[in-house]
Design a protein that fits this description.
Largest sheet of chain B: none
Number of helices of chain A: 47
Distance between the termini of chain B: 66 Å
Strand content of chain A: under 5%
Helix content of chain A: over 70%
Shape of chain B: elongated
Number of strands of chain B: 1
Shape of chain A: rod-shaped
Oligomer: heterodimer
Largest sheet of chain A: none
Number of strands of chain A: 1
Helix content of chain B: 55-70%
Structural class of chain B: mainly alpha
Radius of gyration of chain B: 27 Å
Distance between the termini of chain A: 126 Å
Structural class of chain A: mainly alpha
Chain lengths: 997, 322
């Protein structure tokens, strides 16, 4: 319920009470007390602004009071009707009763309306439920009908008819109502209610869309220019024309209303009849269809007369705007601005004009107008000055102007910005938005909106690539009282914009500015999300200008504090780079290792690990460059141990090896070479490493390790596989690892042929001879013989003959000797000498075994046989001597001497054959003596020859001494000689006391 | 097949060193690989080395019971320790110390030398020869190595080469007494008395008590008819080996036959008789000593008689003229 309605209702109560008061004068104790009560009640029911529930309760109370009063009044009237039934008073009372019902209907209507109100329903549920305005009106109609029927001559019958018509109209009984209005017009043509009846019929027809019919009745009122409804009928007629699409007629009618209004005002008639204001407003609606916009301002100024034309212009402008006739709107408002430069509503007109221009996409004009508006709002403008009071105080108008201007500027700036973003490229939007923002921002403010706008302006500049001004604007926002988040973002954006503005090359000036902005950000936002980025950039700038001492601690700190972030990692990388530039490889190495261990990212960890390894390696190389080779060696080895999987480990081990050789740690160098080959069997330098190791071990008499290395080498160096394998076998032999040697030789033999096979079999034979068993040697010899390898094969054959002899297989030995000494003998002279010597030994044995005991008659034969065997042995020994083998020669001579000596002894000791006389026996002995003497001489000569030959040959095995001793015995004398026997000289050790180190 | 041929066969592929050096130099492309391995200062490992016969040598240190693990032991000390082990024939330790010396004194030949001695002790002549060859590569003019090479060849029956090595050793290292002696013996057997004397004198210059040299030099003197000198040498020889029957017989013979010093000869024969009876001689006597003594006594008597008959008047001092 509105306040005015409520007041009316209170007055109604008062009226009811007053009625009641008159009716029940006796009922009240006193007039004054009743008045006081009424005033008190009215006071209680006074409306309190803002207290909706309270007001609702108060309204309810008032309505209940009214209802109660009305009920009392109705009861009172009904009581009176019953009392004056059939009298002349009854008609008046009935009229009163009908009016009371009509009034009651309003109260009922209140309760009906408030059926949805919890407050009202909860306080008066029954009353609300039973409320019925319709019922009250129907009662009124019944009362009016009764009156019309029972009292046809009632003097206010035209009023009865009109009120009944009105009541029926209220109940939407338009037909009944119209009939009653018509009856009034027809039966009571002189009634003052006729114009109202026409108006009512016109309204009913208008509502039904029966405009011509309506127009007839509206025009019918023209006959009653003094009627209260006259101007309204004109007004309605204008609207009817308008609905009949006759704008011009409508305009004419409204012009009549205006004219009538002027007359009313001029004649100071009831002002309620002056409908110019409404007409001027509605004229704007009809105007757009009838007249051009260029004439509008003048037209309305003319129509308004002494009245303010502004509302009409504003109204028309709105209509133009609503109908998208922006150019017309522009025309209208432009004229207004021109014509009414001091209009109070000028700012609003400007706004409308600006918006119209905006709608017309004339953004530049819009901005121009916006700028004009800004100027208009300035305190110094003529427009603003008009609002200054005499004492200089400013009214609210300029402030409102500024507010309006700013609001418009900001709205447009934002809209244009949005459009620019949407269109992506239409610079007019961006240009206009930028200017609008600029205009808006001319008026400093500390509102969030202002800061936000300022930020948006900076954003726009930034987006338009105007980075330096953007940076400045951002910084302004950052320095302002903008909300923390905005200030923060602006501070960061100012830095970012500067970065963008500068690009790649930073002047000292720019860098100084950057530091200023960065310091501001960090100072205000010590824990700001972009602190990392900003500090990183600060350090980066220093880094790029080679101010590493300045950049390094920042990168280091950022890398530590923001290790998990990209920039943090980048800071770590750059710090590493600085260390690298400074060639502080030790620091690079330590830092990279720390980072590698700390990061959870396996890829980065791996990358850092590689860096660590690289730095570590460079660090070691720097030691080398400083000639600190011992330290470098230690570090290379340490590197290889700590980083077994590094790609640099190969190089580290190689370098360590080289250093060891260089430093004289040859053995360690060889061991490292082996390690290198073991770890990197396919590396380019592996074979060289092994070769060098083998060489070194060999030089150090480390035949075992040398064999091992060569064996390894044979596995890797496919090209020289056999060569290394054979050498390995040789060294295994020297080291006493005969099984390994055998295995390798046998392997090689399996695939060998030609000279290689010969060499291998020869080696195997030598191995078995020196270190094998007789059986293995025999087997080796068999292979030598099988292959016919000389001189080893011949050696083997000679040895086999010697073996047969030693085993007592004399016949076999002799025959084998004969075979070997035959034509095309494969043996060399020395071997032949040995074989022949064996044969001689066999013949010697036969000779020695031959007894000389015999009977007399067989003595000659026995001697002949013995002599013959001697000759055979002698021939064989001499034959052996002819082969010129020194050993065989001296042995053969000694054996010959023995044979001769034996023969002499045998002859001397030969028993005298049985059957000889003394003389014969003497003669026999004399004959034997004749045989003995030359043989004795030959025996001694042979021994002498043996001694001489032995001496000449310088045998060191005591042969000479033995033969000389024998010669002394034969000569039956003691040789006096002090010459000691030649013997193996004693073992010596070096005395190194005076040797240099 | 002779031992040296075996070794030659084994070492036929001994171009290893050369091959490796060649390949190594080819592989010296990296920054650290091209440094010459040769020491910048000429080493003095071989200068002033003297040889000492093991039986005459006092090492001054004891052979360690186990191999020293200290890699920083100076190579000369290692060599001394190895020699001490040679002295007591602890060949296992000799092998280990020789091995260590080969590594830590790699530029010297003494590691391979001691390894050769250890190999010789177990009659592993091929290995001994290889070690000596290696030593000679490091010190080609070190007589001790040639000497040991000669000894090994001697034991392998390679007489000619053995003597060549010993002769070379004698020439290269004056302190090799036995080498001089062998050299002298060869000259003596060849009848080159002058050469022999020079060699024996060299031996005696090193060791005046070298019995063999004294005996051999005495023989030179005997053959050269310098009997007094021979007698003197034999007497000296006996001072160092009084059990030598040969020396005593030679001395007695020279005194009796060449110098006609029957009294001294008789004394010498009587000494032989007594020592033989006491079994204090190094050989068995194969002669009739009683007869010899009687013979010498007879000769002495004759000589005494002759001496008395030709006596001269006494000098104013009453002393008999000599």
């Amino acid at each position: 319920m509105k306040a005015c309605d409520f007041t009316i209702r209170l007055l109604a109560i008062g009226a009811a009470l007053a009625l009641g008061g008159s009716a029940f004068a006796k009922a009240g104790s006193s007039k004054s007390s009743s008045k006081a009560k009424t005033e008190s009640s009215l006071q209680e029911l006074k409306w309190v602004e803002g207290d909706e529930r309270g007001n609702e309760v108060k309204a309810l109370k008032a309505e209940l009071m009214v209802s109660h009063a009305e009920q009392q009044a109705v009861e009172q009237v009904e009581k009176l009707i019953r009392k004056h039934k059939g009298t002349s008073l009854e008609a008046g009372l009935q009229m009163r009763l009908a009016e009371m019902y009509m009034r009651t209907s309003k109260t009922e209507r209140f309760f009906e309306i408030h059926r949805q109100s919890d407050t009202v329903v909860s306080l008066a549920p029954l009353r609300v439920k039973s409320a019925s305005s319709k019922q009250a009106i129907q009662k009124a109609i019944a009362a009016y009908s009764y009156l019309e029927k029972q009292f046809p001559q009632f003097h206010q019958m035209d009023l009865v008819v009109f009120n009944q018509a009105f009541a029926r109209q209220v109940l939407s009984d338009d037909k009944g109502a119209e009939e009653l209005y018509w009856r009034l017009i027809r039966q009571y043509p002189k009634s003052v209610l006729v114009p109202e009846a026409h108006l009512a019929i016109g309204e009913l027809s208008f509502d039904r869309g029966q405009f011509p019919h309506a127009l007839e009745h509206f025009n019918a009122v023209k006959k009653y220019p003094r009627s209260r409804v006259y101007p309204y009928s004109l007004y309605k007629a204008a609207w009817t024309y308008y609905n009949m699409h006759d704008g011009k007629a409508a305009m004419d009618k409204l012009e009549e209303v205006v004219e009538f209004g002027r007359m009313v005002r001029k004649n100071k008639i009831d002002a309620r009849l002056d409908l110019r204001k409404e007409a001027l407003i509605d004229m704007t609606l009809f105007y757009e269809d009838v007249y051009p916009s260029k004439d509008a301002f003048q037209y309305f100024r003319a129509q308004a007369g002494e009245m303010d034309v502004s509302p009409s212009i504003v109204r028309l402008s709105e209509i133009y705007e609503r109908h998208s006739r922006y150019d017309d709107q522009r025309e209208l408002l432009s004229q207004f601005i021109e014509e009414m430069p001091k209009s109070e509503i000028l700012p609003d007109v400007y706004v409308s004009l600006i918006q119209a221009l905006d709608q017309m996409k004339r953004l530049d004009s819009s901005v121009v107008r916006l700028n004009e508006l800004y100027e208009l709002c300035q305190p110094a403008s003529a427009w603003s000055r008009q609002f200054q009071t005499k004492n200089g105080d400013a009214s609210s108008q300029p402030a409102n102007c500024v507010q309006t201007m700013n609001s418009t500027a900001l709205t447009l700036a934002k809209r244009w910005l949005k459009s620019w973003k949407k269109t992506q490229g239409e610079s007019i939007f961006a240009d206009s938005s930028e200017k609008a923002f600029e205009i808006y921002l001319r008026t400093p403010a500390s509102t969030e909106e202002y800061h936000q706008a300022h930020f948006s302006y900076a954003e726009l500049l930034f987006q338009r690539g105007k980075f330096r001004p953007a940076s400045n604007e951002y910084f302004s926002v950052a320095q302002s009282s903008a909300p923390a988040n905005l200030a923060h973002d602006a501070a960061y954006a100012s830095i970012l914009s500067l970065e963008k503005a500068v690009g790649e090359k930073w002047s000292d000036e720019d860098e100084k500015r950057f530091h200023e902005l960065a310091s501001f950000y960090i100072g205000k936002n010590p824990k700001g999300p972009y602190r990392l980025d900003i500090e990183f950039k600060m350090a980066l700038l220093a880094y790029e200008k080679s101010r590493y001492d300045e950049a390094a601690p920042i990168f280091l700190r950022l890398g530590r504090e923001f290790a998990a972030k990209d920039k943090g990692m980048k800071a770590q990388d750059l710090y590493l780079d600085i260390l690298n530039i400074k060639k502080d490889y030790k620091a690079v190495r330590e830092y990279a290792l720390t980072l590698s261990n700390a990061t959870p990212d396996p890829v980065r960890s791996d990358k850092l690990r590689k860096l660590y390894e690289g730095a570590y390696f460079l660090d070691i190389q720097s030691l080398e460059e400083k000639d600190d080779l011992r330290a470098a060696l230690k570090e290379y080895l340490s590197f290889a141990r700590q980083n077994p999987n590094s790609t640099l480990t190969e190089k580290a081990i190689w370098n360590a090896m080289q250093l060891q050789y260089k430093l004289g740690d040859e053995f360690e160098g060889a061991q490292t070479g082996e390690e290198y080959a073991s770890k990197f069997p396919r590396a380019e330098q592996t074979i060289n490493a092994l070769l060098r190791a083998a060489q070194t071990y060999e030089q150090m008499a480390q035949v075992g390790p040398a064999a091992r290395v060569l064996s390894h080498l044979s596995e890797l160096d496919e090209k020289s596989k056999s060569k290394w394998k054979e050498l390995a076998a040789d060294f295994y032999t020297l080291d006493g690892q005969f099984e390994s040697a055998r295995s390798l030789y046998q392997d090689l033999k399996a695939g060998a042929q030609g000279q290689s096979l010969v060499d291998l079999v020869t080696k195997i034979e030598a191995l078995e001879k020196n270190y094998g068993t007789p059986a293995t040697h025999q087997e080796a010899l068999r292979q030598v013989v099988e292959l016919g390898i000389q001189p080893q094969a011949g050696e083997g054959k000679a040895a086999s003959v010697e073996a047969l002899f030693e085993n007592g297989q004399l016949t076999e030995a002799f025959n084998e000797g004969r075979r070997l000494l035959g034509t095309n003998s494969p043996l060399n002279s020395s071997q032949r000498a040995r074989v022949r010597f064996v044969q001689a030994r066999i013949l010697e044995q036969e000779f020695l075994k031959q007894s000389v005991k015999s009977r007399a008659e067989k003595a000659a034969m026995v001697l002949a046989i013995k002599t013959e065997k001697l000759e055979k042995a002698q021939e064989a020994f001499q034959s052996a001597i002819k082969y010129n083998d020194p050993r065989v020669t001296v042995q053969a001579l000694e054996r010959l001497y023995n044979c001769y000596a034996h023969y002499v002894t045998a002859l001397k000791s030969m028993p005298t054959p049985v059957g000889l006389s003394v003389n014969e026996a003497t003669a026999f002995r004399e004959e034997l003596q004749k045989l003995v003497v030359p043989l004795e001489e030959k025996s001694v000569d042979t021994l002498n020859s043996a001694v001489a030959f032995a001496k000449k040959q310088q045998f060191l095995d005591g042969t000479v001494q033995r033969l000389e001793s024998e010669l002394e015995k034969v000569n039956m004398r003691t040789m006096v000689s002090s010459a000691p026997d030649l013997k193996l000289p004693g073992l010596v050790v070096p005395v190194l006391n005076e040797v240099g180190s | 097949m002779k031992q040296d041929e075996i070794m030659k066969t084994i070492l036929r592929a001994g171009s290893l060193l050369g091959a490796v050096v060649l390949l190594s130099s080819c592989a010296s492309s990296s920054r650290n690989s091209d440094t010459a391995l040769a020491p910048k200062v000429k080493p003095t490992y071989f200068d002033k080395v003297t040889a000492q016969r093991i039986e005459d040598w006092d090492p001054g240190v004891a052979c360690p019971l186990s191999q020293t693990e200290d890699s920083k032991v100076e190579w000369k000390k290692l060599a001394n320790l190895a020699a001490a082990c040679v002295k007591i024939q602890n060949w296992g330790q000799v092998e280990k110390l020789g091995n260590q010396l080969s590594i830590h004194g790699r530029l010297t030949p003494w590691g391979p030398y001691f390894l050769a001695l250890a190999a010789e002790a177990r009659r592993d002549f091929p290995r001994a020869l290889w070690m000596l060859e290696l030593g000679l590569k490091k010190a080609p003019r070190e007589g001790i190595l040639h000497y040991q090479l000669g000894r090994i060849r001697w034991q392998m029956g390679d007489d000619v080469l053995a003597l060549q090595s010993l002769h070379e050793a004698s020439n290269l290292n004056p302190s090799l007494t036995d080498a001089h002696w062998v050299d002298g013996m060869l000259a003596l057997n060849a009848g080159k008395l002058g050469e022999a004397e020079v060699a024996f004198e060299k031996a005696l210059a090193n060791q005046s008590s070298h019995w063999l040299a004294l005996m051999a030099l005495a023989e030179v003197k005997l053959r050269g008819k310098d009997f007094s000198r021979a007698e003197n040498l034999l007497q000296r020889a006996l001072r160092f080996n009084d059990r030598s029957l040969r020396a005593r017989l030679a001395l007695a013979f020279v005194q009796e036959v060449e110098l006609k010093k029957f009294r001294e000869a008789l004394g010498s024969y009587q000494d032989i008789k007594r020592l033989s009876a006491e079994n204090k001689l190094d050989a068995t006597l194969n002669m009739n000593l009683e007869e010899k003594i009687r013979s010498v006594e007879s000769e002495l008597a004759k000589a005494e008689k002759l001496k008395i008959s030709s006596r001269q008047p006494a000098s104013p001092e009453g002393k008999v003229a000599q």
